[in-house]
UniProtKB/TrEMBL annotation:
Protein name, as recorded: Nucleotide-binding universal stress UspA family protein
InterPro entries registered for this protein in UniProt: Universal_stress_UspA, UspA
Lineage start: Bacteria, Pseudomonadati, Pseudomonadota, Gammaproteobacteria, Chromatiales
CDD domains recorded: USP-like (cd00293)
PANTHER family on file: STRESS RESPONSE PROTEIN NHAX (PTHR46268), UNIVERSAL STRESS PROTEIN UP12 (PTHR46268:SF6)
Protein family membership: Belongs to the universal stress protein A family.
Start and end residues of each UspA domain: 19-158
Amino acid sequence: MTPAAKPPEPEPGNTHVIRRILVALDASPHSREALEAAVELAVRYRAELLGLFVEDANLLRLAELPFTREVGLSSGMPRRLDALQLEQSLRAQVRLIEKLLRQSLRHGQIAGSLRVVRGRIVTELLVAARDADLVVLGRGGNPHRRIIGSNLRQVLESTLETPLLVGRKAPPGRPVLVLFDGGEPAYRALAAALQLARRERDGLVVLIPRVGGAEAESLRELAGRWLEQQGAQARFLFIQGASPEMLQRAVETEQGRILVTHAPTRGMSSDLDLTEHLLGGLSCSLLLIR
């Protein structure tokens, strides 16, 4: 919602420095897409890339129970979850991830490393995020049903303060889009979007929701004034509200490469549901700023 009073603006030149990028990895296609997005940003920022693979301790404990069963994806038949086979599968995943990360680092000519830990996935991710300036995750979940993964949803609900990029690979040269709806989080999102656009020499498109004629024009004026202070220009696009459908349509129309907006408010399940809905149908990366 747009506040009645003018929100505080960041000081000119105050940008979020990205020196270390943390990317959560597994053997899934979503994870590979996240790795590609993370590598691309690491190359742009000359940042160190920190890969993290978490061996799920809960799953390993379940495998030790005699009554635990898993259902085959192709056969649909239940079978015993074997602890030894699970350990072997994890070792194979680590070897694959090491190979993919090594190739990516060599191709991008960037520094990086892989950390393998055993624990709860989200807990270990939050611990590792303390040493990072940006966290990159894959969308996970079921793309056909437009549902995000449970780990991503838990991260969105968590106390994570580091900017979070839900990565998808997109062709270069496309603009960075940012939702500006007033308030401090919107200014932080605008600053992050401008930094990305400058780094990548792409255009910047500021999305202004039409919540009322005068309010929308006021938002445009505020964003334009802030950008002018930074010596920057952008194109403004008025959209009919800030619903997931409107944002997805704007991304498609503008062929956006990254959409930047503020993260869902903690404790607000409706905000979280909207973010999940947005991610479910988004064709580009989403950068969430606290």
